[in-house]
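ok so heres the complex, two chains, lmk if somethin looks off
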Amino acid sequence: MKILVPVKRVIDYNVKPRVKPDGSGVDIANVKMSMNPFDEIAVEEAVRLKEAGKAEEVVAVSIGVPKAKDVLRTALAMGADRAILIQTEAEVEPLAVAKILKEVVAQEEPGLVILGKQAIDDDSNQTGQMLAALLDRPQGTFASKIELDDDSVTVIREVDDGLETVKLSLPAIVTADLRLNEPRYASLPNIMKAKKKPMDEKTPEDYGVDISPRLKTLKVAEPPLRQAGEKVGSVDELVAKLKALGVNA
Amino acid sequence: MTVLVLVEHEAGTVKESSLSTITAAAKIGAVHALVAGDSDEARQAADAAAKIAGVEKVLLATDPAYAKMLAENIAPLVTGLMGGYDAFLVSATSSGKNIAPRVAAKLDVMQISDIVAVEGEKTFARPIYAGNAIATVESSDSKLVITVRGTAFDKAALEGGSASIEDISGTGDAGLSSFVGLEASESERPDLTSAKIVVSGGRALKDADTFEQVITPLADKLGAAVGASRAAVDAGYISNDYQVGQTGKIVAPELYIAVGISGAIQHLAGMKDSKTIVAINKDEDAPIFQIADIGLVADLFDAVPELTGKL
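and the predicted structre for the whole thing:
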């Protein structure tokens, strides 16, 4: 089986995002960029499935600016076999991403597509579900465990009530949650090897997909700021403050 | 505009998150509530939904395929109804987030996730970058598909409406997926997302037993829900459904007590809209103190039992 793993280049999760003064967006110039953390988990899971003999090939795909090659190289260094960069300078919304991925799936015919459950920039949490819908395939979102069999995949999902287990027929779409695994760090030899792994370059037009945005961002603003309050010196003072707030216990 | 709201229900009652979504929907247009399920409980929930202030009509779809709200089965039901609606809204719960994009893709609509304000018929505010920025976006699609952040909207009143209930036929099982089981946390405490007080613990709690021994008595004393940081959940102190943050639950209680939580932005994203934030942490430079209304720099293993004793 082949596994397809879409990955996105986003602001590094340790960087505090700054809103541009003109309110047009978040400033990502000269900011450290990395692979979306949930996508790293998706890559790791795909590579582990390959290492366990349950998959033959792991293909990473990214849609974005030329520098998105960096995150594809990371995926290759982690153990993906080859990569596809679908290059565009435009901001591509999840719906358009899903449409492009649908065409990639049609060409590659993977048994499983594993994506991160959301990207930490736009926090949309849509692409996996949209891809599943466009393909009329089942989806196992927010996965914390995946068990792959010949014709089905069992997914344990992190849901509001706890952990839900669903069984999906293959081919299927899975989106990775935080506790699916702990991604490995790529070793230096593997980083070197990754440079020799194949990377195809395409454009959205190659797939015949219209990526014009449907949403117009009117403005991006800082959220209301919370001011730090006061520090109290003792538990007694804290108790007095809480009682003043009307906390009865 | 007429808006279809997928109502989530449990034991015959409408979930509180859906009450907030109905409030958001009423800002866009006339609200019709869709209740899907397979049993008498769904019918009870439809009766309850019909009484909610602002709901003009209830659609009830009963089908065994809807019992577990599998997205593969619910999405076709919703998309089939959308010919008659301008917008589809559902809460940004794990279930809503699972279903809505499937509907949006089928309708060829770009979904607007996790809205916190309705600013016009097609203009909405939503947090991005873990709540470090608020984007105002305008849709150019002919229909809207939206998920709603429950803490950002008041709950619609449970009484005051007298909607009619229309039975509609189910769309059956898509045959793609099946429910195997749910491992739910048993708790007598209030629900994390709707509790007035939340006591949350972080990695500093050391292990599952210590977490239980330190956090639980304080939560019990206050009638509070228990929450946790990602670090505490990752370390296995408590299960995933207690996680507060960007990718966990979003809470906005009257009082949020953060115990041994340093305050990573991903955690702050889930609780910074709380009315009053109390932080107890022995590191006086912990970022949590930058947003806390009341801070206590102390060893939590001394301070929390003392606090529990004195309240």
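quick notes: Chain A has one domain: 2-244. thats all i got rn
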